[in-house]
Structure formats: C-alpha cells, structure tokens
Specification:
It is built from 4 helices and 7 strands. The chain is an alpha/beta fold. The chain has 2 domains: 70 residues; 84 residues, Transcription elongation factor, GreA/GreB, C-terminal domain (Chitinase A, domain 3, Roll), CATH 3.10.50. The strands form 2 sheets. It has a 5-stranded mixed beta sheet with strand order 5-4-3-7-6. The mean pLDDT is 83.
C-alpha cells in the first residue's frame, strides 16, 4: 500500500470547505432538477439538461476530492524539526525574490505549495541556508532557504509580519 500524503489541519479544513460548497451546489442543482422535472415546458426541459451536466461535473469534483482525502494523513506539529516538512512556512529567495510558501500535501489555501510540485519536492527536507536548483518543464528555478517556521507558529508569523500569501 502506498504511503499516504502528509497534510496539515489547514489543508484538511480547506478541503472540507470545498466539499461543503460542492454539496450545497449539488443540493441546489437537485432542487432545480426537481422543479424542471415537475413542469415539462421547453424552457425547463433545457434547464433540466443543463442541470444534469452541472450535477455530473460537481459529483466528479466531489469524488476527486474524496479520493484525495482518502490518501492523506494528518501531520502533527511534533513531527517537525529543523528541516522543511509538511506544514512549515519557508521563507526562500526564489529567483532573486523573497517568497513565502507553506509546504502541504494539498495546495488548497493561500500560500500553500504542493508537496508534489517540483519546488515542493525540492523544499521537503531542506534546511536553512540550503541552495536548491529545481528543474521544471520550462526552466530551472534557483532558491535558497532563508528561514523555516514551525507549523504551530505559522499563523502568528504571518500576522506579525503582515504577510499576504498568494496561491
């Protein structure tokens, strides 16, 4: 059995918000389908066809997220040390610019960097001062680890430093 992807509580909460949103949208679509099915005029017939397509799309997204979640395991802060692990915020010099990334198994919130991405794989296990060269499909990225923040201190660090992380 393959190892499960380590994720933080924040990533799991983000995934749960997505699941909740999809379930709400599916309920709305189902309500619309029920109205369309009860009427029978041509406008509702077309809406019914569109609704069926939307329903299938949202169900597919929901299934994909549920599969992702079944392959995840929650990382506890005490599993961290002085190297970048899941949940750490890394302050890095990335192609000459200071960048902040939070390494996570699922990159579903602001500032998250997927552990499966090229930069995520390079950061995992890196220490302060490490210089990294990351080959992507299009280029080579150079990075240097400047600081590592433990998972339990990430939110305070972001607030104290007035960081606005981007996806």
């Amino acid at each position: 059995m393959p190892a499960k992807t380590p994720v933080t509580r924040k990533a799991l909460e983000g995934a749960q918000k997505t699941v909740d949103s999809l379930l709400k949208q599916l309920k709305s679509i189902q309500d619309s389908l029920n109205v369309a099915g009860d009427t029978g005029d041509r406008w509702h017939d077309e809406a019914f066809k569109i609704g069926i397509g939307d329903q299938q799309t949202f169900q597919s997204q929901l299934q994909r997220i549920q599969i992702q979640l079944s392959q995840c395991r929650l990382v506890k802060p005490e599993e961290q040390n002085q190297t970048i692990k899941i949940g750490n915020l890394a302050k890095i010099l990335l192609d000459g610019k200071i960048t902040y990334l939070i390494l996570d198994g699922l990159a579903n919130y602001d500032g998250a960097c997927s552990f499966a991405s090229p930069i995520g794989r390079a950061l995992y296990g890196a220490s302060i001062g490490d210089k990294l060269k990351v080959k992507t499909d299009h280029r080579i990225i150079e990075a240097k680890v400047l600081e590592i923040v433990a998972p339990e201190k990430v939110d305070k660090y972001i607030d104290d430093n007035k960081l606005f992380l981007q996806e």
